[in-house]
C-alpha cells in the first residue's frame, strides 16, 4: 500500500466513524458515468472501461450494505445508448449481462430490472428475467438494474399500463379522468411499491440527470462527483453520504 492509499484509508475510516446511520439514505440511485473517459485517460479501450465500471458495482453494493442502504438503482444502459454503433453496443450488452449474472450469483442481493424489456435483445431479456427470478427470495439490498431505461419512456409506459389496466376493467374515460392522480400513476412505474430515491449520485463531473428517474427524483438530493465511475472510491461514497446527512430536506419547500 502506498502513502496515498494509506491516507485515503485513514480519512475514509474517520468519515465513516462520524457517520450517523440514522441519516443514511434508504434508496440511492446511481448514474454510472465516465467509463469511456476513464478508459481513454488510462490508455485502454471502451470495452475495458465498461468492464472496469461493471467490476466496481459489487464493491459499491458492499459499501451500501455496510451503511444500511436498502435499495440501490444502477443506471447501466439508457434508451439513448441503444442507438450506439453495433461494434460498441454488442460488447456493452455482453458486459451488462455478465454483471447481472454476477449480481444474481452473489447470493446477497435481490435483482429487479427497470426499463423496457422489449427494446432489448432476446438474450439480454433472458438474463434479466432469470436474475430476477433467481434472487426473489433473497433478503439483502434490492438492486434495480436500469437497462434500456429512460425516464420519459418510464412515464409513457406507466400511462400506457394504466390505460390498458382500466380498459380491461371497463372503466370509462370519464371515470378514469376522475381516478388519475399521482398515486395511481406511481402504481404503474417500474419501481412501484418501492420508496423513491433519497439520494442520486452521478459520477464523472456531469451535473444533470439526463432523464434518470424523472418521476421518482422530484424530492431527491443530488450529489455530483468529479471522479469517473471505475475510479469511484469508498471515500467518495462516504462523502456523498456525509453531504446528504448535512442537508435539510424540505420536500419542495
UniProtKB/TrEMBL annotation:
Biological process according to GO: polyprenol biosynthetic process
Keyword Protein biosynthesis: no
Record: active site: 33, 81
UniProt entry keywords in alphabetical sequence: Magnesium, Metal-binding, Transferase
EC numbers: 2.5.1.-
Binding site for Mg(2+): 33, 221
Cofactor: Mg(2+)
Stored Pfam families: Prenyltransf (PF01255)
GO cellular component terms listed in the entry, alphabetical order: plasma membrane
Residue positions binding substrate: 34-38, 50, 78-80, 84, 202, 208-210
Gene3D superfamilies the record matches: Decaprenyl diphosphate synthase-like
Cofactor note: Binds 2 magnesium ions per subunit.
GO molecular function, one term: magnesium ion binding
SUPFAM superfamilies assigned to the protein according to its UniProt record, in alphabetical order: Undecaprenyl diphosphate synthase (SSF64005)
PROSITE patterns named among the record's database cross-references: UPP_SYNTHASE
Protein family membership: Belongs to the UPP synthase family. Z-FPP synthase subfamily.
Subunit structure comment from the entry: Homodimer.
Function: Catalyzes the condensation of isopentenyl diphosphate (IPP) with allylic pyrophosphates generating different type of terpenoids.
Protein name per Swiss-Prot or TrEMBL: Isoprenyl transferase
Protein source organism: Streptomyces jeddahensis
Amino acid at each position: 500500500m502506498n502513502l496515498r492509499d494509506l491516507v485515503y484509508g485513514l480519512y475514509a475510516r474517520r468519515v465513516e466513524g462520524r457517520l450517523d446511520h440514522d441519516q443514511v439514505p434508504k434508496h440511492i440511485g446511481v448514474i454510472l458515468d465516465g467509463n469511456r473517459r476513464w478508459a481513454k485517460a488510462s490508455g485502454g479501450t471502451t470495452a475495458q472501461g465498461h468492464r472496469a465500471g461493471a467490476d466496481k458495482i459489487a464493491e459499491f453494493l458492499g459499501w451500501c450494505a455496510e451503511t444500511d442502504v436498502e435499495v440501490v438503482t444502477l443506471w447501466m444502459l439508457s434508451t439513448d445508448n441503444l442507438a450506439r454503433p453495433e461494434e460498441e453496443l454488442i460488447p456493452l450488452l455482453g458486459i451488462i449481462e455478465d454483471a447481472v449474472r454476477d449480481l444474481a450469483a452473489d447470493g446477497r442481493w435481490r435483482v429487479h430490472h427497470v426499463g423496457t424489456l422489449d427494446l432489448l435483445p432476446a438474450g439480454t431479456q433472458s438474463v434479466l428475467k432469470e436474475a430476477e427470478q433467481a434472487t426473489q427470495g433473497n433478503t439483502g439490498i434490492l438492486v434495480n438494474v436500469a437497462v434500456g431505461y429512460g425516464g420519459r419512456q418510464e412515464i409513457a409506459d406507466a400511462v400506457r399500463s394504466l390505460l390498458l389496466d382500466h380498459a380491461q376493467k371497463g372503466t370509462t374515460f370519464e371515470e378514469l379522468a376522475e381516478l388519475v392522480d399521482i398515486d395511481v400513476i406511481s402504481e404503474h412505474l417500474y419501481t412501484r411499491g418501492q420508496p423513491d430515491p433519497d439520494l442520486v449520485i452521478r459520477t464523472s463531473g456531469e451535473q444533470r440527470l439526463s432523464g434518470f428517474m424523472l418521476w421518482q427524483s422530484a424530492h431527491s438530493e443530488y450529489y455530483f462527483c468529479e471522479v469517473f465511475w471505475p475510479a469511484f472510491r469508498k471515500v467518495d461514497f462516504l462523502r456523498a453520504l456525509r453531504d446528504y446527512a448535512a442537508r435539510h430536506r424540505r420536500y419542495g419547500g
